[in-house]
Specification:
This protein is an alpha/beta fold and about 130 residues long. The protein has a domain at about 60-125. Helices cover about 30% and strands about 15% of the residues. Strand 1 (about 15), helix 2 (about 30-35) and strand 2 form a beta-alpha-beta unit. It starts with a helix and ends in a 6-residue tail after the last helix.
């Protein structure tokens, strides 16, 4: 986040998060740089309500994720790590955001015996 806010490539950085996030390092930056960051807290069970955040964006970076322990089950983990990410990408696409970057788990592998296997990457019929 610090890199995006500090970058001269972006005049504005919008975040869509599940909760308000404090960035202690932000206070050390120039006020004009600090003002580039606009945080939006959204309901991830109703992401379409936040679709306007993508309007006019030139790039999207998705860093959404959780752990299986925090999620509580494989299904809940998949809901966060796959369904939310897919819907976010679809909203960015609908807003014609030209670039969408997904930052994922280190070492993710479709052939892993963990949750990132072929079944986890295959959309469910409702997706």
């Amino acid at each position: 986040m610090r890199e995006l806010v500090s970058s001269t490539h972006y005049s504005q950085v919008r975040t869509l998060t599940r909760r308000q996030i404090e960035y202690p390092w932000l206070q050390s930056l120039d006020a004009s740089v600090q003002s580039k960051l606009q945080q939006h807290v959204g309901d991830f069970e109703n992401l379409t309500a936040s679709r306007e955040i993508f309007d006019g964006c030139t790039a999207g970076f998705c860093c959404l994720g959780t752990t299986r322990k925090k999620a509580g089950s494989a299904e809940a983990f998949r809901h966060v790590d796959f369904d939310y990410v897919l819907e976010t990408a679809q909203l960015a696409h609908a807003a014609q955001v030209p670039f969408f970057h997904l930052v994922t788990s280190v070492g993710s592998d479709a052939h892993s015996s963990f949750l990132y296997d072929d079944r986890a990457l295959t959309p469910t019929p409702s997706s």
